[in-house]
């Protein structure tokens, strides 16, 4: 009998993870070709280091705000924070972003709390009401992070 990996409740299954990796790779390519938008959102490529593996990771992430105040929201991942968020917080000193104009920028993540988070959340919810709708259906509060250029 085949030894299958146990699927943890509230997390994506094997097919969903495979599909997400394929779509992420396509979006990363699109950003690198100078087309950094998806469904009306600006997208960047977030570079992190795996918290367990130590391997470099690349994730396309929608961002909000302006070039001095790039804000991202960890809205994916089911009942758990997405892997890119966990990796970002575990190794913040190794984070960088890649922009559609070709520039790579080392960044420091700042998780927003309280009034700062609420202000950023309003910006996100106004720009993309569907993200606010997803939040109402989730058991967790989506983390909001400011990416500050170093």
Provide key terms for this protein.
single chain; 150 residues; alpha+beta; 6-stranded antiparallel beta barrel; 4 helices; globular
What does this structure look like?
This protein has 150 residues and is an alpha+beta fold. It has a six-stranded antiparallel beta barrel.
In short:
With 150 residues, this protein is α+β, with helices and mostly antiparallel strands. It contains 4 helices and 7 strands; from the N terminus they run αββββαββααβ.
H-E order:
HEEEEHEEHHE
Structural class: alpha+beta
- Across the major sheet, the strand order is 2-3-4-7-6-5
| Main β sheet profile | 6 strands, antiparallel, barrel
Summarize the amount of helix as a percent range. 25-40%
Please report the total strand number as a whole number. 7
What is the 3D shape?
Answer: globular
How much beta, percentage-wise? 25-35%
> Treating each run of at least 4 consecutive H or I residues as one helix, how many helices?
4
Radius of gyration: 16 Å
| Poorly predicted parts | none
N- to C-terminal separation?
52 Å
Task: Please tell me the overall pLDDT.
Answer: 90
């Amino acid at each position: 009998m085949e030894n299958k990996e146990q699927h943890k409740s509230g997390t994506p299954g094997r097919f969903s993870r495979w599909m997400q990796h394929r779509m992420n790779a396509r979006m990363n390519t699109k950003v690198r070709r100078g087309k950094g938008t998806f469904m009306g959102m600006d997208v960047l490529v977030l570079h992190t280091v795996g918290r367990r593996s130590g391997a470099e990771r690349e994730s396309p992430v929608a961002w909000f705000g302006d070039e001095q105040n790039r804000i991202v929201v960890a809205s994916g991942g089911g009942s758990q924070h997405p892997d890119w968020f966990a990796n970002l917080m575990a190794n913040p000193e190794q984070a960088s972003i890649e922009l559609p104009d070709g520039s790579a920028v080392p960044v420091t993540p700042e998780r927003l709390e309280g009034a700062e988070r609420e202000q950023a959340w309003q910006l996100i919810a106004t720009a993309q009401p569907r993200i606010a709708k997803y939040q109402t259906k989730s058991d967790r509060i989506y983390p909001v992070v400011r990416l500050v250029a170093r």
